[in-house]
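Example record

The entry below shows one chain as it appears in the dataset: sequence first, then structure tokens.
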Amino acid sequence: MRKSEVFVPRRTAGLSASDLVVLAGLTVLLYGGLRLALAAPTQVQGPEISLSIAALPRYAVYSVARMTAAYVLSLLFSLIYAYAAARNHLVEQVLMPLLDILQSIPILSFLPVVLLSLSALLPEALAVELAAVALIFTSQAWNMTFSLYQSFTTVPNELKEAAATFRLGRWLRLRHLEMPFATIGLIWNSMMSWSGGWFFLMAAETFVVGRRDFRLPGLGSYLYKAADLGDTRAILWGLGALVLVIVLLDQLVWRPALAWADRFKLESVEADEPPTSWFHDLLASSVIIAWLRAHIIIPFVDIADRALGSPSGQRWPKSRQRSRIVPTAQVALLIALGALLLYGCFRAAQMLATLSLASLGHIALAVLATSVRVTAALLITLIWTLPVGVAIGTNRRLATVLQPLVQTVAAIPATALFPIILLFMVGLPGGLNIAAVVLMLMGTQWYLLFNIIAGAAAIPEDLRYTTRILKLGRVARWRTLILPAIFPYLVTGLITAGGGAWNASIVAEYVTFGGQRHQVLGIGAVIAEATGTGDYALLLAGTLALALTVVLLNRLLWRRLYVQAAERYRLE
């Protein structure tokens, strides 16, 4: 196999030129959104949210529909984005820094910009629905994209060599090699994405800016109103409806998907206890499903194979005239984009220049304070998720019991429970600081847990048998098999959990409850306060500071671990 076909993520040290270009583009987009937000309607009347039990089925359908739309967009985005970044070094140099920045953008602080911008351009109802789907999308897409990118870059070399020997084109290599290898991790991260979507659903359905009421009917707004009124009965009914939806999805979607994906596990020995699903067995024996597969799915796939499955190395003829015109058009486009970036950065700099040195110093201290809380949250998360995730991923019986339980707990919006936690901790020494770390844990620990489960579940059964035959002790088994096998998944989980912790700081460090404001020093509090007061210059500065911090962490730490995962810890 040609050396160029073995992809290894690029080593980076600090910020590269592509990072700076992407940061400049983000600055321009933020500035443009803030300018559009100024033209939004000054008053918006939201719908009345009913706490009647009879309204729960309708609200559940609304919420699941928004989550489904966001998930479909996230899946399409992840497939295209991760594949492009993993297949081309030049494209990777732009897309991965951009993904680092997209992950670092504080979702809850950017929601006002998205909502107000869309409401200035589109009808109010459509703008609010699109903004809600966009917010949920940003809570689902990044970890799925990181998971696919990690899988695409750690495909075993002998499988790549086999694909090259059979001269599989890009489409057939994707369908028969890369996607099957990535399926198990993608399904577990999809489950995490769905659970993470519930976390931000409440914010998406209950957003209010001054006299602008952008609420949407759904489970999130139902739980928020019930918590705000202190209606314990409505809270319990709302949580019950949420749990019921989660259990149904587990039985009808995720458990069948895991049972189906077990066929893609990279092993030469079949597991003694493969995952099972009664609904998967029911679908497999369905005459209707068999007819659809034989007459629609397989013919459609055959057509796609014939149209896209050209052998590797085949080159399509190119027009000479086109080859002369395209570079000129590209240069003109680059010049236009460069001019736009320079102008946008200049206008954003003018907005930032209105801030005092004291405000900038406060932002620097706030970033430092939040980084301490994020580090503490990640360390606590790693301590408990590593053994629990490996236990669930390697023990089928334990997974049958704990998988739906973990999904249920992960999907309960932490923002709905935070007022209760705050009541217990606000009077303690360092109460809100501890409460902020607790909320970060509640919102981000699942990213790491689900990735560890996926990594442990993907360990080939024959390697586990080998460790038993060699009679390796527990410590030796962890050192020689478990930790190396799950290391790529562990890095992905830490990246997404860290990004989630930074995002959760928006609601963890600045809380309004019971008519009182509770606030600690942190960049999340700076952004939340700027959002509430409409201080767009401070909002822009805080968001850029947070994005730059996360990008530097990814460049200096996480990307280097990614390189280690791709070079040393792939299954061969």
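Notes for this example: The longest strand covers residues 510-513. The mean pLDDT is 77.
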